[in-house]
Write a structure and sequence with these properties.
The protein has about 260 residues and is mainly alpha-helical. It is built from ten helices and five strands, in the order αβαβααβαααααββα. It has a three-stranded mixed beta sheet. A two-stranded antiparallel ribbon has the order 4-5. Helix 2 links the parallel strand 1 and strand 2. Helix 7 packs across helix 9. The chain starts with 6 loop residues before the first helix and ends in a 7-residue tail after the last helix. About 15% of the residues are buried.
Length: about 260
């Protein structure tokens, strides 16, 4: 017969088994998956034998030439091992020491998991914080340390090398000009606590936005003047300028209008 692994199924099994005055139960892996059923039967005075899954696997392989598993085959092999008094052992009722052992195992697993998470968080703090983080650190200290970390933004390394070089030349020229708006913007970022490299990235990003608006304006103008220089827009989203237009704009921004930074 086949039953569900539930209290209703266990009771149905007991009603069926009462037709046998003398009975013994062979439960495969009674200390693992079959533990609940085995202990339920033992608590009602039944004799239960624990049949290791390795023993049933050997019986299946020797009798059938393979370890193929089905419910019928599993039941037959467990019965064979129990009847031959092979590797089967009698299952005894578990007491409070078993419960305490389970609780202790759970406590050890939770403590190990907590240590693993703490070590991972400490490694993240060590990577984010200049100079690393102390070994003995509390949750409050870690939160304070995280609040003190400044978010760093980096420009994408993708894009045209010539255009990136031109934007860098424009930014360096503006920073060298003491009275330029670009230098004022650079000094403002330094005053906000950014490093020189971070402030330079901010200036480059602002210049890139301004150059993009100029390129869009050129494209609209060239639509009305098809004989002028051509602005090519690729399908990949990158923008390419003809050499003359690119050189003209770079020189114009870097030299002629060194203080040209958008508001």
């Amino acid at each position: 017969m086949r039953i569900d692994a539930s209290l209703v199924g266990y009771r149905e099994l007991m009603r069926w088994a009462k037709q046998f005055p003398e009975r013994r139960w062979a439960v495969e892996n009674a200390r693992g998956l079959g533990r609940h059923l085995a202990q339920w039967l033992v608590a009602r005075g039944e004799v239960v034998l624990d049949v290791p899954s390795t023993a049933t696997a050997r019986v299946r392989e020797l009798s059938r030439g393979s370890r193929r598993k089905t419910d019928v085959i599993d039941a037959a092999t467990a019965e064979s091992v129990a009847a031959l008094h092979g590797d089967a052992t009698v299952v005894t009722a578990e007491d409070h020491t078993t419960v305490f052992a389970l609780l202790e195992e759970r406590r050890a697993n939770v403590a190990a998991q907590r240590d693993c998470v703490a070590n991972q968080l400490h490694a993240v703090l060590r990577d984010l914080t200049p100079g690393g983080a102390a070994l003995a650190i509390t949750a409050k200290s870690a939160a304070t340390l995280l609040r003190s970390i400044r978010t760093r933004h980096r420009l994408s390394r993708a894009g045209g090398r010539r255009l990136n070089s031109a934007i860098h030349l424009i930014a360096v020229t503006q920073v060298r000009m003491r009275n330029s708006i670009g230098r004022a913007y650079f000094d403002k970022k330094i005053a906000e606590g950014k490093t020189r490299n971070e402030a330079m990235r901010c200036l480059k990003r602002r210049l890139a936005n301004h150059i993009w608006r100029m390129m869009i304006a050129d494209e609209r103008r060239l639509t009305d003047e098809p004989t002028g220089p051509v602005l090519h827009v690729c399908h990949s989203g990158t923008t390419q300028l003809s050499h003359h237009v690119f050189a003209y704009r770079s020189r114009d921004l870097a030299v002629g209008h060194g203080d040209l930074v958008p508001d």
